[in-house]
Amino acid sequence: MNGLFQTARELTITALPVEFEALAPPPMLLPGEHLDHYQALRQAILADLAPRSAIEWLLAIDVAELSWEIQRYRALRHKLLEVYRQKAIEAALRRVDMVGIAPEFETEAEYHTLQNGQSWRTDPMAATEIETRLGTYGFDQRALNTEVYVQAREIFLLFESLLNAAQTKRLLLLREIRNLRWMGATRPRLATAAQTPRGDPELR
Which of 98, 105, 5 is nearest to 51 (CA)? Predict the structure, then answer.
């Protein structure tokens, strides 16, 4: 196939040639990540790109690595939002429970707010009671979702920048592979044209 990508029917298993094994060092996985998931993703990408030379193999391996990083960033971002939901619950509880609290009782009230936030995270029954009580004050799930993004805005933007950077790099690598394919496909034609006599009738 002359194009960069193969169709699903043409998708085949592409094994890394022995002479190129040094180009693909062992993956550095984080706790909770699975080697078989990584290998499946990389294999699918290598089969789709079907690299033809050492340079293409290097680029294709980098595409696979970036694709894994993008999946990792998305999973971590989602987990981040789950973690910051507790902070959103605590922020909502402060607006409900600490209104009109005398300054001398603020420290104790803050302690109870944090305890309630922890109970929300670890005790399903307590979570239901807290969310129901917050709902009576207008803090429904949409309001809490908004508060989650407010609480996590700085680190959330960090993950967004990591995702955007990885996606941009992957796109550039795919373009580079496409350019290499195009150059390889046109080079023989250019050489043939350069060797054709000027008086050849085919050029008239």
Answer: 5
Query: Cα torsion at 88, 90, 95, 96 (round to 10°)?
Result: 120
Does 97 map to a domain?
A: yes
76 is a domain residue: yes
Q: Any residues with CB less than 8 A from the CB of 97 and at least 6 apart, and which?
A: 109, 112, 113
Give the 3-state secondary structure percentages of the chain, helix then strand then coil, rounded to 5.
Answer: 75, 0, 25
Total domain count for the chain? 1
DSSP 3-state of 156: helix
Own/partner contacts of 179-183, CB < 8 Å, gap of 24 or more, are 180/53, 180/55, 180/56, 180/59, 181/2, 181/3, 181/4, 181/52
Q: 80 lies in a domain?
A: yes
Range of the domain at 51: 34-184
pTM comes to 0.72
**77-117 confidence digits (pLDDT tens):** 999 988 899 999 999 999 998 888 888 888 998 999 999 99
Q: Which value, to the nearest 10 degrees, does the dihedral of the CA atoms of residues 152, 158, 160, 162 take? A: -150
Query: pLDDT by residue (tens digit) across 143-198?
Result: 999 999 998 999 989 999 999 999 999 999 999 999 998 887 776 555 554 554 55
Instruction: Return the structure tokens found at 194.
Output: 């350069």
